[in-house]
Q: What sequence folds into this?
């Protein structure tokens, strides 16, 4: 864990990350908080200061589309990952740069987490799962073994994804949904038990 970390974000997800790292006596600061936008507004990230260039940065924004845009506009190239000491991460788990694994999360064995992924409080990811870049796994979500979650996927609070299910890029799984079959349509919004498609979104989720 670095001694100083930059938090690219100014909302709830950023405040949670600040609480986590602060409890571990890690210095942190918000990066360009005045430029962080709500959905649909232009994101403007200015050139990093010398201090910011010298430390790792994590984009702590829940919505994958906003997180991806912030990362793409950030002029620095040092993205760190945060893994809470209160999470269980197995020795064969890989975690990409910029990702967050929150307290109480469980990642068992042979899990591959992409870049800039958020695994929220109490979520569990079973063996041999691949999680695409910029995905968000909600609090208390359960991902069965051998699943494939595409880039920018959002798994809502308490949702369950059955073993061996593949979910396409940009799919939003609603809170409490139970996904028992592949979701093949990118950007689909699925809800219910068993999960069914409610609609097709225009792009990656900006709001959870």
A:
């Amino acid at each position: 864990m670095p001694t100083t970390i930059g938090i690219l974000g100014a909302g709830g997800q950023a405040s949670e990350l600040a609480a986590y790292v602060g409890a571990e006596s890690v210095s942190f600061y918000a990066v360009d908080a005045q430029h962080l936008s709500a959905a649909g507004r232009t994101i403007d990230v200015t050139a990093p200061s010398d201090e910011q260039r010298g430390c790792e940065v994590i984009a702590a924004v829940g919505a994958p589309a906003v997180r991806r845009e912030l990362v793409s506009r950030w002029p620095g190239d040092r993205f760190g990952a945060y893994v809470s000491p209160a999470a269980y991460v197995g020795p064969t788990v890989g975690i990409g740069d910029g990702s967050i694994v929150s307290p109480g999360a469980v990642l068992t064995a042979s899990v591959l987490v992409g870049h800039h992924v958020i695994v929220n409080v109490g979520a569990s990811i079973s063996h041999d799962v691949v999680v695409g870049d910029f995905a968000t796994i909600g609090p208390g979500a359960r991902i069965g073994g051998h699943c494939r979650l595409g880039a920018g996927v959002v798994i809502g609070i308490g949702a369950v994804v059955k073993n061996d299910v593949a979910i396409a890029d940009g799919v939003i799984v609603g809170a409490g949904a139970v996904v028992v079959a592949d979701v093949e349509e990118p950007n689909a919004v699925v809800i219910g038990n068993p999960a069914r498609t409610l609609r097709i979104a225009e792009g990656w989720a900006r709001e959870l």
